Every structure is written in structure tokens, then in C-alpha cells.
User: What shape does this take?
Amino acid sequence: MTNVLILFAEDRAAQGLAGAAEQLGGETRAILVDGDYQIEETLDALVDACRGADVILLANDTYSQEIAPRLAHRLGGACVGDGVGVARVDGRVRVTRQVYGGKAHAVVEVRRSPAVLWLRARSFSGGAAAASAAELSRDPGARSGRRSTRIVERNVSAQTHARLEDAQVIISGGRGIGGPEGFRDELEPLAKMLGAQMAASRAACDAGWVPPTWQVGQTGKKVAPELYVAVAITGASQHMAGISEARNIVAINIDPDAPIFKHARYGIVDDYRKVVPLLRERLTNLGNHEGKR
Amino acid sequence: MNIVVCMKQILDPEVPARDFRIDAARREAERGSASLVTNIFCENALETALQSGGNITALTYGPESAEDTLRKALAMKANAAAHVAGEGGHPLHVAQVLAAAIRKLGPFDLILTGRESGDWGAGQTGALLAEELGLPCVSFADKIEVMNDGGWQMADGKASDSSAIRHPPSAIRVRRQTDAGFETVEAQPPLVVTITNAEHNVPRIPKVRDVMMAHKQPLTRFTVDELGVAPADYYEIVELAIPQKETRCELLDVDGLAQRIAEITAAL
Amino acid sequence: MKEPTREIYWNISHIWLMYALLVPAIAIGAWGIWRRVQRWRRGKADASRFDRPTLRIKRLLDHSLAQRRNPIFHRLLTWGFIVLTIATIIVALDADFGTAIMRGRFYLYFQSLTVDVFGAFVLVACIALAARRPRFTPLLAAIFVIALTGFLVEALRIAATHDPWAAWSPFGNLIAKVVPVSVVAHRTLWWTHLAITFAFFAWLPFTQLRHIITSPLNLYTSNLAPIGANLKSVDFEQERLGVATLDDFTWKDRLDFDACTECGKCTDACPAHTVGKMLSPRDIIIELRDRDEGSAAIAGAAAAQALWECTTCAACVEACPVFIEQMPKIVDMRRHLVMDEADFPDGMQSAVMSLEKRGHPFTGTQATRVDWTQGLDVQHVSAAKDADVLFWVGCGGALIERNQKVIRATAQLMQKANVKFAILGRDEKCSGDPARRIGNEFLFEMLAKDNLANFTKHNVRKVVTPCPHCFNTFKNEYPRYGATFEVQHHSEFLEQLVDEGKLAPAREDGVTFHDPCYLGRQNGVYDAPRKVANATIEMERSRNKSFCCGGGGGMSFVDEPSDQRVNQERANEAVATGAKTLAVSCPFCMSMMEDGVRGRMRVQDISEVLWASQQPVIPSVARDLGGRGAMNVPRSPTRPGPSLTLGMTEGEQN
Ligand SMILES: Cc1cc2nc3c(=O)[nH]c(=O)nc-3n(C[C@H](O)[C@H](O)[C@H](O)COP(=O)(O)OP(=O)(O)OC[C@H]3O[C@@H](n4cnc5c(N)ncnc54)[C@H](O)[C@@H]3O)c2cc1C
Ligand code: SF4
Ligand code: SF4
Assistant: This one.
């Protein structure tokens, strides 16, 4: 059995994919797709490079998501995307993934070979990275004849931040923050540590403490992060309307009766001015430990 | 320019978690009190088509109720609509059904789909459809410009530029979203494009007059058998479950919270 | 002594000249009126406006003579105007038809004394009104000059003739003492007075003073139903839906325009205007009046921006002394924008889209329609065949978390009073009120028909609801689709239960009450909610003059600029009373007021106030509720905080 990992650029995802491959068993080799990605050319080349593989693993970047189903089709296999778990049961590949916007999860069994999977690579514990990744060799005069698309311009967004809607982690503050200083001195350092985006309730936006584009809720942005930390936010339904897709809500609020606690998975009832600095400290320590490991 | 927009009716993704039920044996979601709605990315796709101007056919594969999706598309001013009656199936089957219908309805210069559906979220229909039809494909696009008579025509939100409707375009320019920002892709039609959402392709709200008219317009109807699509193996859902989510709030101290946050962020 | 009278046309010759002037004056005036009448006649048909004549005459008298909505000075002006006109007609009768009315006591009491006093009223009223405006408008000036020249003519006559009955004209007599004896001056002034008066009447139909004629017509044809029943129905076969151009208004709308006195009472009462928004109902009416046939209706003061600021609170309708229906016209124009143009604010668009998709106006809510029933024994209508009452919860009650407590309180009160009630649960759909006020009549009809089919299926005879919007819609708008069931707002129903002794009256002190527009002003229910909550403190603006919470007409789905929020203005007013509790009786008022008071006082629904007074606390209820429900039982110092009982487990669902 052979597994092929397809990597676009030097991807942090490599370890996760290698880990998934280990779970599936078999030999693993990796292919690195270099800088000039052109959809049809790259696909043609990958079809050649992947022949004979049983399992082909990709990460969850846009190129992988775009290529995976087509690669499966060309190789006569089947594709499953957005996997968070893989297993081999009676010789067949099974993938666990979330469906219905996270309301349910499904196990999908692949009935063709090869199985072409794109995975949330970070959900897998790292495996020994494949010794080396072979560069994909491409034949500019590929055969499929579908030469008719060409990426003519690549724009790396000037914005260093991802859009709030796409953020994985969000630190959000409400009126209880008390002023722009609280956002600047307490929440922003926390957000930096976690690589998080900042957001706010309307009350905080209205007060002029933070820009109106930060507003989350019925009349603000609708977000879907893995982690939403609501600091000094009551949790009015108009606010909650914006975070119904958030996977994990953490509430920090001084009032034990605040409705936010009904929606939160984890909570602390205390003054955020005490909690947040401590939290940063603990997270720094935890980070250091992991670094040493 | 002839455009076909493939659209899917799904269970309302906004159904409250507490109202969401599944039939574990049949491995399907139960309709319950939830509504059926058009998948949002399919509506984004229709909106993008309407903005680039052309003769637009809305196509759906689904049960009888999916007619609502077509009526809504007609109300938004799609020019025609076609319904393949049938239900379910894996992405390959769906792509084969749509490809067969498109061959009958065509020819088309542009074939649009949503990037993924809000129910199963497989995200494969557009790509597999391109393979079935032997066409190139661009994914995650949010804007389409058309080259006509030597000039690029910006989508201006007004659907009925007559020249755009009459002439097949000589080239198409697609803006698509990537992890880092966006890319511009130039392409020759025919071409499959999967559409994602952006500020500028929020589906328009139809006029009531058009909603009323839409109910009187004829639909082209097919069945899967008529299209001659045989079932094929692809994948099977072997398990469907609602995760036993902890809906209660666990009150922690700072240490505990830091631990949990570290765990969640580590898994990203 | 001779019989009291005076010589008509004393000192005046060439009376033919008067008739020569009268003919063109009447002709011009009549032509002016005729033009307006033609304009009304070009309008579209309107609902019945001539039924129940006795009621109509009563309203006409109440508001044209008694003028309940006008300040005293305007009443004096009107009465003066009427008395002087009658006196003039009597003079004409005696002079031209040989009658002898102006004699004896009648001459003394009416033709002399009354006319003299009311003439003085006119002068005083003109000055007072000019001071309020604050300027002497040309029209007021004209009336003032007419009255003043009238007095001078009288005074000159008295001075010159040594009129023995002069004392019966006290003001004229007073002036007579200071004017010289001059027949020339008298004659000159007489003709001047006459010329100005004739010119005035010829001019009148071309100015807003035409309201002297139009407002009685408007009062007679005004809407007799509660304001809540004011909106027109839509004929979907029409080429245009709603009002796009002036042509789309009905004859009554056009009469409304012409009846406007430009007094500005509507705009003064308008909450949107008060907080500094563009909307001014007065300017809308005036501009539409002055627009040409066929021109676009939605422009200028009636620009889309202004139309989308209206909360449909009907303060304007209630304030208008001549019963102009401003708010329904705003909704008419919205209908065009929504149904023909699909051009309306984003927030309202998502509300409409959600109504279409899932039968409630909220986006992204994770609440279900039965969340509030957790731990309460509440049955679905299909399982409770013997229920006397359908408890209609409403979207705002079921799906806005804060209001779930209100619904629980109301349900528990009914349980305590042994009311057999049932709910529709997940089968409830929005009553359609937001769709209708936003302007999507098509969607409203669909929702209304769906709900009615459901009511019929379950044989519903009586509905009780805590939502004034649903209440108004059921009561005033569903009958058009065949509804015959009885509907009560929970305030009325709870009041009844208290009166019957089934519930203890509220004991809470320091409660002020905010009237919901759709319960109070639009349906006339003012006392019941006050009684239920024992609300004894009144805000500055209350009852029919109450100030909107800002949430009606689809406004609770859009974000207002932070310095122009109606709810802020109202919340500040509530806080200013010094009351401990602000009682509301509408789920939307609840949201708006909670957002507005920002913790400065407690906001509770009247049912929560009443529930807190039910003693002793029923232990079984407290136990059933567990930690969650503790919020619904009267506040105790030992309320548990969020504990592991928060939320609910999957197994609890039904
Ligand atoms: C039509 C409409 C639309 C709306 N749309 C939105 C929307 O899109 N988004 C939105 O967010 N809101 C929206 N709102 C407003 C919403 O109703 C609430 O008023 C708002 O969300 C409250 O914001 P908040 O929780 O920050 O403030 P508050 O309700 O004032 O809550 C402050 C919280 O901070 C806590 N707190 C105070 N001090 C501390 C401390 N030192 N440490 C910890 N906690 C502390 C308090 O206990 C309290 O829970 C809308 C309202 C309306 C009427
Ligand atoms: S209904 Fe209320 S908000 Fe609308 S114009 Fe009249 S007073 Fe103003
Ligand atoms: S509409 Fe009525 S209240 Fe408003 S200015 Fe005219 S007469 Fe006055």
C-alpha cells in the first residue's frame, strides 16, 4: 500500500498529513508542488505522479480543496474532504468529518481506489515527516488539452488579518470592558498570543472604543470560529445571532446571571481585569512547556 | 452568453441545534420542523451569473420540493429552469446527473455551482461536474468578467446587457479567493466555476411581482432514468451521529480555562 | 323706544358695486375649490368612508367645533369665524330677501353682543397664534385685518350715528370713543373691509386655509376603526403594488393632503423626528399635496430614507387635529419600494427573507419556539382538546431569550388561575405584522392564511397573546381573511383574572408603564396593563401621547445611528420618573427598553410584575424549574448563579 502526500509549498500541514498516513499504514512518499500553480497543468502532472497510489492525502488549503475531487476522478478513485479523522476498517478507508454545519458528524467509507482525502491537517497529531518531498515535475505540454485557464495575477491581501468571518479564534469585548484602554491593554495582547482576531458587541462599537467593523451580531458580522472568547459581553440575543456557528464559546463575565453563560462551553465568573492578565500568564507558561517538549 | 447555474435545496442550516434530529439508521437528517431553503452558495452563484449578464438557466436535482428553489431562481430573474426529479446520492452521482442534464439543455458557455452545500458540505459537485463534462474548472470564485468585442466588461449588477446575452464571450476573467488573498484567472469558455460568497454577490431579494410571475413560468423536467444515469460506487455514509455536545457551561478557574484554550487552539 | 336694530348699508351707496365684486370673488373661490375636488376625484377608490353617519357627525362636531386636539386659541378663531360668517349671512338675508331677522333681542344678543365678543376673540386668537408660530403668516394677518377693519367700521358707525344700542357692542363702543366722527372714513373703510374679505374668500382655496372647507369633509370621511386597522389592502392584479406616483393615491389620501393645516402637530409627535432623523410626516403631507399629477411620490420629504425611519407608531395620526392618516401613506410608499423595487434596508431584507424561509423574522437564532416550556406542563393544541384559550406566544416571545421569561410568567399565571390553555408550539408562524409594516403585503397574506388555516384546523375560538403586534393583526387584519375568533392581549386577560379574584393583584410599588403603540394608541387599551402591573407612576408622555420604543414597523431589525435612537430617548424618559421598575407589555418594547435603560432601572413585563406578587411562591413550580427557572420565581437573595443545570440536555427534548 502506498500513500502519497501532496503539499502545496512548504506547508505546516505536512506533519499532520504524515500522522494521518501513519494511521492508515503503508509506505508514504510526498510530493511538493512548487510556486507556479496553474490549475489544469498541475492537475495533469499530479495525475501522472500519483498513479498506483492507494491513498492520496492533501491539506485544507484552497488549492488542495480545488484539486482533490478532480484528481480522484481522473484516477478512478473517490474523494472525501474536510476529514478530522481517518481509519482503515476491513481494508477500506474511513474518514470522519463534520456535516450540517457541525451539528452532526459522519463517517464516510471510500468505495473506490485511490482514496483522495483532504484533511484538517491540524486535527492530526504529527507523524514523522516523510524523509523528503519530491518536487512535482511538470510537462508544460500536458496532454489533457484543457489548457484554457491561466492564473494571470496573484494578490496577497494587503490586510495582514484574515476576514473576521474566516477567523479561527476571536477575542470579543463588550461594554463591560469600560473603554478603549481595556481593549488595547488587555484583550489585544491576548489576541496576539492566540493569533486571534478582535471583535466586539455593539455596545462597545457604539461607545467608539473600537471600529464599527468589529461588531458581531444580528446587525454586525456573523462569525464561525473554533473559539470565541466573549469578555464582558452579556450575550443579548442580537449578539448571539452572530456567533451561532462558533464551536466553542468562552465567557468571562462578572455577572453569574448573564445569559452568555447559557451558550458558553466554558466560563469564568469574575472581573475580566483580574482574569485576562492571569490567563495570558498561564497561556505563556503552557506555550513554553510545549516549546520544550 | 449562455449560463447554467446548478442549485441545491437543503435543510435550513439555521435550524436550531436543539431542533436538529437525525435518523441514525438511514443516516439522514430528519426534516422535522425545519424549513427547506436554497443553499446560500448556489444563490451566490446565481447572483454572480445575473451580474455578468447572459441567458441563465437554473438547474436542480432533487425531490419535488426542490421546485421551490427553481421558482425562487426564476423570481430572481433566471431566464429558464430545469428540474431533474430524484433524490440523494454521492457527489459523483450528482455530478453525472447534472452533466447529463446539461448536455441536453446546452450548449453553455459558463457552468456555475456553489462551492459547497450547507448540509453535507462535500464541496465536490463543481469539480466532478467539470471532469464529467471534460471542461476546465476554477473554484472559489466571487466575480466574473466577460470579454466581449475586445473589451472586458465589468459586472455591474444589471443583468440585461443585450450584447452579453447574444454573443458567446471570447474570454472570461474570474476573480477567486485564496488563502492569501485572491487570484485572477483568465479562461476560454466553456468553463465550470464554483462560487463562494463575497460582499458583492449577496443574493438579491426578488421583487414580489417577479415572485408571482415565477409561479406561472414553465419548467423543463427530467427524471434520472430519462437521463440514463446509472448508479455508481463512490463512497458510503456508514455512520451519522449528533455529537454528545456539552451544552452546559463549565465554570473554571483561570488555570483550567488556560488549559482548555490551549487545547482548542492547538487543534486548529 | 324703537325696536332694537340698525340700518343696513347705512352711509353706503352704489351697492351694485358690492355684487359686482362678489361675483368674481365667488367664481374664483369656487373654481379654486372645484380644482381641488377634481383632484380628489382622480384618486383611486378607497374603503367605505360614509357608513355609520351618526358616528361621523359626532366626530365632525367633536373635532371641527369642539376641536379636542387643538389649542384654545385655534378654537376661538374658528368660533369667531363661524359667528361672523353667520352674522354676515343674516345681514345678506335681511338686505336681499327682505327678512327681518336682525331685530329685537336677537339683534342685541347675537348680532351685536355675540358678534362683537367673537370678533374680539378673533383678534386675540390671531395674535396668540402668531406668537406661537412664531410669526404673522399672511393668512393670519389677513384674518386679523378683516376683523380689525370690521371693528373700525362698526366704531365709526356708532360714533357717527350715536347708536342707542351701542352698549351691546362693548368693544366696538370702546373704539367708537376714540375715533373721529367721519362718514368718509366710515365709507372708505367699509369698502376696504369688503374688498379684503371678498379677496380673502377668493384666495382661500389656494392656500392651506382651504382646510376651513376640507377639514370638515376630512373629519366626516375619516377612519372610524381603531388606528390599528388603518392600512389598506392591496390588489395584486394592479399594475403597480403600493404607491409609486401621485396617481396611486386614493381620493381620500388626496383629500387628506388638502385638509392639512400645516400645524406640525404630527411632526412634533413623531419619535423619529424627535431624535433628529429626517422623517417629518407634516412635510410629507405638504409636499405630496403640492406635487403634480403623475409625478413620483417617493422624493423630497417622502424620500426613501425618511420612509424607512418610520416606526409606524401612529403618533402622527393620533395628533392630527383633522384626522389625516400619515402613517398608512408611508406604508403605501414602502410597499412600492419593497414589492416593485425590492429596494429596502438590509436589516429588513433579512427579516423578510427569514420570514419567508422559516416563518420568523430573526436570523441566526438558536432558540426554538418551545424552549420556554422546559419544566412547565404546557400542551400543544392537538393534545388539549378541552382548552378554552390558545396562548399565542409570538416570535418575539419565544425566540428572544429575555422574553422567554415573560412567556413563562404569563403561562404560570394562567396555570395558577386554572385557565385551560394550549399552545401551537412549533406550528406557530409569525402573525405577519413585520412583513406588513415593512411593506411586503404578499408575504403578510401568505402568513395570515397559513396561520388561519391552523386556527381553523384546531378549532380555535379564543386567542390570548402577550404581543401587541400579533394582537393588533389578529384583531384588525385577520377578519379580512375570514377570522372570527376572539383575541385578547395578555394585559386584558390578566386584568380579568385579577378582577375575578383568581390572581392576587400586583403589590409592587414604584412601577411606571410604557404604552406599546399597537396596544394603546392603535387599539385603545390603556388601563388594563397599568392595573396588572400596579403602575402608578406616569412618564411625561403617556397613554395616547405615549412615545414609541423605536421597535415597530420593522425598525427593530435595523441598526440606528447611535445618536438618533428612539429607544434611548424613551428610556431616558422612563429613568427620569425615578421609578424602580419600567413595566412593558410587548416583546419588542422589552428589547428596546432593556437596550435603552442600560441597567439604570429594571425592565419587566407586566406579567412578571404580577407573577412576583403571587404569594406564596408555589414550591412545586420552584422545584420543577430547577436552577434555570429560578429566574422566573420572585427574586430572592439566594438566587443560584449559573450552575451545571444551565442549559438542557438532549434527552429533555420532545
Ligand atoms: C435592533 C437591535 C439590533 C442589535 N444588534 C446588535 C448586534 O448586531 N450586535 C450586538 O452586539 N448587539 C446588538 N444589539 C444590542 C444588544 O441588544 C445589546 O444591547 C448589546 O449587545 C449589549 O452589549 P454588551 O453585552 O457589550 O453590553 P451590556 O449589556 O452593557 O453588558 C456588559 C456586560 O459586561 C459585564 N461586565 C461589566 N463589567 C465587567 C468586568 N469588569 N468584568 C467582566 N464583566 C463585566 C456585565 O456583567 C454585563 O454582562 C442590538 C440591539 C437592537 C435593539
Ligand atoms: S407613524 Fe410614528 S414614526 Fe411614523 S411618521 Fe408617524 S409619528 Fe413618525
Ligand atoms: S398632517 Fe395633521 S398634524 Fe400634520 S401638519 Fe397637517 S394638519 Fe397638522
Remarks:
- The helical segments of chain B are 40-52, 67-75, 91-105, 125-133, 162-166, 208-214, 224-227, 254-266.
- The domain at 2-267 of chain B is CATH 3.40.50.620 (Rossmann fold).
- The interface with chain C takes residues 12, 14, 16-19, 33-35, 37, 204-209, 211-212, 242, 244, 247-251 of chain B (CB under 8 Å).
- Residues 155-165 of chain B have pLDDT under 50 and may be disordered.
